[in-house]
Specification:
Oligomer: single chain
Number of helices: 9
Low-confidence stretches: 2-22, 26-45, 262-296
Mean pLDDT: 78
Largest sheet: 10 strands, mixed
Structural class: alpha/beta
Strand content: 15-25%
Number of strands: 13
């Protein structure tokens, strides 16, 4: 090996040693310690301070939120969306947790689902899908607006929703879809129904527009309404007058007419119940017709 080569190797070795022992490694070490300290501080910092840090860094980097686009809202106000997302002046996109913001938005009464998308460097798109008003629910004298799955959308019922169907009773909001599906199978009865009342959270009573009440069984409610329609077609107009029509037994229909308001000072004798066996309907129309005539 020549003296020149040996000298070059010695110089190279010294250069490497100089790089390892000089200022460079010290800087990296300091930066590493500072970085670890910063990450640790952010991890344990409260959300307010963490958000302030991200906002500061974001503004310096040019990621300050300047453009907000909202879509899909009809019943939910813009101000409610802005407040729920937590948008403040000087906010940066770096500090916005879109997952948390989406969960907060979907907790709002009308919001069914929400999507948030950061548009760098300074934009945010918020799109929501709202639930539809499905029915009115009455409980303990209070009437509210509900969706098909029973969620309360509004604590009062605006005038534009007064024509929606009415259900009443404890738990009726949770099974309102079953009542509406049932009546959809029987349009004629649906047209006469003023309210569907859930009894003991198990079965439905239908209140008709003429004052009659139809008591439905817990199981086989649709078949019971078919039976009632059959009686109506045979001339027993029992649902056309104020009456309590009990369809809870599969083989027996019981009708009790509601006495009219007396014009005299004395009360009339209570009218008897009429039981109709679906297998023995001969004369049902005559009996009910006579009762209705006596009522008049």
């Amino acid at each position: 090996m020549s003296k020149v080569t040996a000298t070059a190797k010695r110089l190279g070795s010294r250069a490497v040693e100089a790089r390892l022992s000089g200022r460079g490694p010290g800087r990296f070490l300091v930066l590493g310690v500072l970085g670890a300290t910063l990450v640790s501080g952010l991890y344990y910092a409260d959300p307010v301070h963490r958000q302030a840090f991200y906002n500061g860094i974001g503004r310096i980097a040019g990621f300050e939120l300047r453009t907000l686009t909202l879509s899909g809202q009809k019943e939910t106000s813009d101000s409610a969306i802005v407040a729920t997302v937590g948008i403040d002046p000087g906010m940066s996109l770096l500090g916005l947790d879109v997952t948390s913001a989406r969960e907060r938005l979907e907790a709002l009464p009308w919001v069914k689902s929400a999507t948030l998308r950061k548009v760098f460097p300074s934009g945010l798109d918020v799109a929501i899908e709202e639930a539809s008003a499905f029915a009115r629910w009455q409980l303990d004298g209070r009437e509210v607006l509900i969706s098909r799955d029973g969620v309360i959308l509004a604590d009062d019922v605006p005038a534009r929703f007064r024509a929606l169907p009415l259900v009443a009773g404890r738990g009726a909001n949770e099974v309102v879809a079953s009542a509406r599906d049932l009546l959809a199978e029987h349009p004629q009865m649906d047209a006469q129904t003023v309210a569907a009342v859930l009894v003991n959270e198990r079965r439905w009573d239908l209140r008709l527009d003429n004052g009659a009440t139809v008591k439905l069984p817990e199981e086989g409610a649709s078949a019971a309404l078919v039976r009632l329609a059959s009686l109506e077609r045979e001339g027993a107009l029992i649902a056309a007058a104020p009456a309590v029509i009990d369809l809870r037994l599969p083989d027996r229909t019981t009708v009790q007419f509601v006495p009219l308001e007396p014009k005299e000072e004395f009360l009339p004798e209570p009218l008897p119940e009429v039981a109709a066996d679906p297998g023995e309907r001969d004369g049902v129309a005559d009996i009910l017709g006579a009762l209705m005539e006596a009522q008049r």
